[in-house]
Amino acid sequence: MEVSADQVEQAVVEFYRDPVAKSGLNTWLMQAQHSRHSWTFAWPLLDQRKPEEVQFFAGNTVYMKVSRYWHEVPKEEYEPLKIKILNLLVQYSSSKIILNRLIKSLGAYVIHTLQSEWTTAIQDIISMFDPGTVAGLEPSVALNLLFNILTVIPEELESMHEAMSVVSKDKQIITGIIRNSHQAVLNLITQVMQASQVSNVIKEVVLKTLNAWLKLSLPLSETRELLVALIPYSNYALLCEPVMDAIRTAVTDVGTYTIPNTVMNFVTQMLGLTPVLEEAQHANDENTASLVYSLFTSVVECHSRLLLQHALQPEHRATVVQVVALLLQCAATPGQYPTDETTSNIPFAVWFTIQDDILTFEGEQQAELLTIFQPVYLKLVDTFILKSLLPPDSALSSEEKEMFRCYRQDICDTYMYAYYVLRGDMLSHLEVHLKDAVVKMQRDPSDWRYLEAVLHAYSSVAETVAETDNFYVPRFIQSIPQIPFSDNIQLISVALTTLGAYADWLNYHQDHMHHVIPLMVEGLVNASLVGAASQALRDLTLECPLTISPFSQPILTSCQRALEQSRLDSAETERIMTIISRVLSVGKDQPTIMTYLNATLTPYISRLSHLKDLMRTGLSREQHSELVSLLKLLSCLARHLNLNNYSLEDEDDDEGATRRHSQVLSGEPQPLLLVLQQLMPLLSDLAVKAPTDTEIIESGYVIRRLSPREAVASGVSSVASAGAGNFTSTLEDESFTYVASLFWALVALVSVAQRGSVTCLLYGQEKGVASPQEGVACITSTQEESVPTTRAGNVTSPQESIASPQECITSTQDETISSPQELCVILRVPLSTTTLRNLTKKILFLVALAMAKGVTLCKLLKNSIGTLLEDCVPILPAILEIIPQIYEASLNPSLLELVKQLVVLFGRDGNQETNMGVLLRMVTTTTLNRVSADLWNHTDAVHGCLAMLSVTFKKTPHLLTYHHNHLAPLFHLGNSPRHSLSSFSDVLSALCKMYGDDLARTFKGVQADETFLSPRVTTQQKEDFAKKVLR
């Protein structure tokens, strides 16, 4: 179709005026933009008399065409095109948003022509925009334009390579050509930076140009002198960050690994930043201090091993120690995190890197390094005990509390790294702190925070402490009953958590069990402590199944009291049920177990039956949640009540026959089987009444579709509102409708971290922005593969487009913004490292919680089969009735794991083999019938089915012979999403092995067919391919 400039202008203007027609206009504009006609209509629209949104559309069209449709430009048009772009650059030199599009257009033009048509592009551009000779531009404007162009050229090369507009081979050649011009650019940068008459605003642009060129891996030997000369500029607030960025890019480049001496000399010169740091601290300039600390953190993370090697050399040791001392100083920044300071968290990753690299050295070298760094790590332990002191409850907002929780978790991780360096010396050091803390609390019971911080440190190293430690850990365990807790709930909770962390050690030292059991048992019957006590005791029963047996009676009694007396949440009830199941599984006869279970479970089963009856008229939200919680409770029982403690996962093919039976030695059936025989009619009724209720049936949630902007906004809003104390409640209340938003918010944060830029879908899907106004709100992502999908496959690439700065600003006005961090994400402007780190942690924490939530009916059945193994035969008919009822109604992928488990377990059982074949056929045919028309909207079911078949075909290939008619449609699943192809290849491989003769005959027919894939594939190539497959 013919597209004129007038038509495009009218469509763009109408796009903003008519919300109803917006979607259709957007599609039409994108089609016009990609058509050949855009080469014609774009230029007339680049008229400053036109509406701004029209000019913006035209500028972005030019950029898209030059960068992605270069093949449409005939060679005779190269020079006229260049002239048009250069003239427009001068014309729009004062219009920043449009100018950015034109600069990128020139950058794309340079990339396409640098190899042959315009080999002197860099030198020519420097000459063209020389402030002393360029006509029609102020010197400052010319300088700004020149350095923006020089910045875009290397950046555009990378962007075009990512967009596959430039192939890898050409990219390498073009990179080499650009690098050959680096000396001229560096000389120009040096000249401008030394010019006193040039403003810091222009120098900021110059430094960004330097950073862009340094990313081309320029030799540090050639850039070091310039970089050292830039250090004094870090005293200027506007220039400090770009100076640090340039130095970081240069010193952490991959090419520096081959020039260790040059790097070490440069690091020594970087210590010239120490006065800048001291001045910033004196002036309470946290931003500058953070930038300096971040730079040294990056250096140590990148060159840790190099620094350690030089630490072994006396002439360089002082430099290495001084660098590490700066980071230790950073960790010890005075004040409360995050209210008084947000700097001390910067070097967390360094402490792992250093200890990890130290341990790669051997013998005397490692011993010498440990001698050098052990004092550093001891000081670090002292620092973190002080920094991890809990502030008063009212001192932090909910958001700040969550930031501090993440901060303490980082400290917890760092304690583990410190232990690997210090070993027993760390425990000895903590013992000194513990004694001091106890003395302080004895003097003043209100001074308990120091003791809490010490217990937190002990808890952090529990997993790393060797089970053979017979000196420090016993003394710590024995000291717990002597601590004057003074009914301090928070302190007792920490003590319980710490004791639970040492469960593995206690399993090998059961003589110390009597020091810890009383505190845990007492905590179970205290409503304020039941959460921590149940967590600790659950860990203990999981790790110490045999050594806990002598204490079973007081534990069971306390559990019963807790269930009867306390108002527990679902998580606490589940933990107590786990404790009961583990304790009953050791040293108890069946009558005793059943007596206790009858007393414990009867109220819950009665309540479950009542809720099932109420489903006829509909459950309230509270009743529905209660029903799900009851199923989860029974799932815990099924998972842990096992008198033999064998599981399906433990089975070995060669020895499986001796481990499939789960009956107790007395010959009586497992107590769990007796419970399930009574429970199965009730579960069958639930499956009939709610086959499509995902919360009741499976272990996950359906996530509603959100637009990208809505997802980011709501995701960040929910993250910000979920403080340390109410994560679970937030998730319960929202039923995880924000899981998609959390992912989107994470995608947004990562994008900001990596690029500091945004996407505008309508305008060519490009990532660069020219100003805060332009960057305000194109908050969509166009990289489809990076977008997480849900079970329903309904969170896909964004569909909304934002076409101009004005619309972007308007589009964010309806968002509820309650903090600067939220505003940063909504507006997609650069975030500080600290804010980014904490927001990302919050999102990951919520997503992890979401993914772990909802162990319901499927999980209950799966756990039951895993515990009972072949002795689940009495309840197998009921299970085989439940599965088709649910799967045919809902196509629920959670059922597929259950089917896989059953087929592997009973697929070779002569009595159940037919049933398994029927079950496998039902699942396969149901899946194929439901998904074949739309694979992409059933990615979860496709993936689950293929994963199930890949396992069952390997374990029970003979079941294929029962039914052949469902095999042919399987091949249509080869068009399934990429993440399913691995399972599809496994299924295909299994089929090929099963039907090898048929496969060979098929290949012979294909080879003989001269029309198949000819002329691109020769007969010989077909034969070679067939041989490789049939091999």
TrEMBL record:
Domain Importin N-terminal per the UniProt entry, residue ranges: 27-91
Gene Ontology CC annotation, any one: nucleus
Record-level Gene Ontology MF annotations: small GTPase binding
Highest taxon above the source species: Eukaryota
Coiled-coil residues: none
Alphabetized InterPro entries for the sequence: ARM-like, ARM-type_fold, Exportin-1/Importin-b-like, Importin-beta_N, Importin_beta-like_NTR, Importin_rep_1
GO biological process: protein import into nucleus
Domain spans labelled Exportin-1/Importin-beta-like: 96-221
Pfam families assigned: IBN_N, Importin_rep, Xpo1
Cell compartment(s), UniProt: Nucleus
Keyword entries, A-Z: Nucleus, Transport
PANTHER family: IMPORTIN-13, TRANSPORTIN 3 AND IMPORTIN 13
Binding partners and assembly: Interacts with UBC9, RAN, RBM8A, eIF-1A and PAX6.
Family (UniProt): Belongs to the importin beta family.
Protein name: Importin-13
Native organism: Chionoecetes opilio
